[in-house]
Amino acid sequence: MTYKFPKNFKWGSATSAHQVEGDNHNDWTVWEAQTADQRRLNAEKRRNEFSNSVLRSYPNPLQIENFISGKACDSYNRYEEDFDIAKKLNQNIHRFSIEWSRIEPEEGRFDEKEMQHYVSVVKALRERGIEPMITLWHFTNPIWFVKKGGFINLDSPKYFTRYVKYVVENLKDQVGLWITFNEATTVYSGFSYLMGVWPPQHRNIFEWRRVNKNMVAAHIAAYKEIRNIYSPADSFQEVRPRISQEVEPRGPSQMSHNVEVGIAEHGSYLNTNLIFRFLGVEKAFNYLYTNYLLRNVLPYCDFMGLNYYTHRRFFKKISQKVEIESDMGWEFYPEGIYRRLLDLKRFNRPIFITENGWPFVSDEFQLKVIKDNLFWINKAIQDGANIRGYLYWSLLDNFEWHLGYSKRFGLVEVDYKTFERRIRPSAYEYAKICKTNQLETDS
Ligand code: BGC
User: Which residue has the higher pLDDT, 344 or 271?
Assistant: First the structure.
């Protein structure tokens, strides 16, 4: 069967600064050094959970290097090589993030040289015919900002917006797709302030609420700032063609409060399904994670970014079949992306799939992840969802936060000793889809 995608549909992949650049100096690098030993010991205790292939690779979860971002993929220096690969794979959009701690290493001191680095990164993409999509914050914070309490501080929206203003003013003519925060209220606040997994490892429901509130406020303030930079007179038409010739919607103020709504998903199995429907639990969860958030943010959001990986089910025990396909404990459930996309339809905004992928198991499975998700995305398009592009997570294997390097999400394999890149066979298959703008399946 052939499934066609709309004309001008964008195809690409995504990364984030801390996960690929190397040599950062932020709250994560400090925390990694403090906790690496302990995290390695914990992994040692769970040794039998890891597959042999993971234990054979470098660094593996039993090695300290696994837990320290260090040089990462050295993409700070090798970005041109990375973009050559993206181009070779027929990609025409690329999402990456700017590292706040590089741009503003001390409070109020903006580093012109680092800014020029990102100007060069954007230029390198444009020269290869790849549309840049920039995330302004992807989980990491400058140390001075954390000393002030990070997003607990009531002034955090002000600090964040000041940084955003500086960056956008420097890149406004080259970039048309801005994302303020990556998974701020769906992943970050929970991991960092409720579950105590990520720095600063707090478990405090009041702090969690406050961080959520401040991040939403920061998004709104940044959104207004960006709009203002592009067009104080509110005449967007004039700048649109200069920003981007191809992506619809064009223009300066594409922003997304990036929502990972996969968490609201539940199983496809009849028993859990019926119970959820009956009890209205699905509705309650969607309300918490989607409605509440988007109602607040919606007027300040020109497109939506959906990151989808998996679903969560409750009452796992009563469902017969549990298909765990990754060593992150995730269940493979591509239909979930369809359900979330249809759910987002009611907000009436163009949607990009800003992340979708899986920790590498095998090339066959990586291709299945891509194809099955695209099948459901295509179905969502047929059913009226306004989807503009698909960005696979990730272009490269990279630093998977507290779990380290042993989780490999890349279309491209990275050798962490030599930094050599090796394109996986499944990436070439994805490249065919990108080129032809259509998905071919056997049945
Ligand atoms: C994050 C990425 C991460 C990916 C895979 C997303 O939640 O934005 O930074 O690597 O999930 O876990």
Answer: 344
C-alpha gyration radius of the chain: 21
Angle, alpha carbons 37-38-41 (nearest 5°): 90
How many angstroms is it from 91 CA to the middle of ligand 1? 20
Q: Is the pTM of this model over 0.85?
A: yes
Token duo for residue 288: 């918490």
Question: Does the structure show a pLDDT above 80 at 272?
Answer: no
Residues 422-443, mean pLDDT to the nearest whole number: 97
Q: Is 16 in the pocket of ligand 1 (CB under 6 A)?
A: yes
- By most ligand atoms within 8 Å of CB, the mutation choice from 186, 197, 400, 402 for ligand 1 is 400
The answer to whether 419 touches 73, Cβ cutoff 8 Å, is yes
Q: Which CATH architecture has domain 2-440?
A: Alpha-Beta Barrel (3.20)
Q: Annotate 278-314 with b (16+ C-beta within 10 A) or e (fewer).
A: eeebbeebbeebbbebbebbeebbbbbbbbbbbbbbe
Question: How far is it, in rounded angstroms, from Cα 136 to Cα 115?
Answer: 13
- From the list 124, 121, 128, the residue with the least C-alpha distance to 91 is 128
Residue 366, judged by CB atoms within 10 A of its CB (0-12, 13-18, 19+), counts as buried
Q: What is the DSSP secondary structure assignment for residue 434, as one 8-state letter?
A: H
Please give the DSSP secondary-structure letter assigned to residue 354: E
Q: Which range among 44-48, 51-55, 412-416 shows the weakest confidence by mean pLDDT?
A: 51-55
> What does DSSP say about strands 93-97 and 10-14: parallel, antiparallel, or unpaired?
parallel
The per-residue pLDDT for range 322-367, each reduced to its tens digit, is 455 556 777 788 888 898 888 888 888 888 999 999 999 899 999 9
Residues 6 or more apart whose CB falls under 8 angstroms from that of 414 comprise 73, 396, 397, 398, 420, 421, 422
Range of lowest pLDDT (100-104, 191-195, 300-304): 300-304
Helix (H, G, I), strand (E, B) or coil at 30: helix
Rounded to the nearest angstrom, the distance between the alpha carbon of 53 and the centre of ligand 1 is: 22
What is the average pLDDT across 402-408? Answer: 96
Instruction: For residue 61, give the amino acid letter.
Output: P
Q: Counting atoms of ligand 1 from 1, which one is nearest the CA of 187?
A: 7
Confidence of residue 213 (pLDDT cuts 50, 70, 90): confident
Q: Is the CB of 393 under 6 A from ligand 1?
A: yes
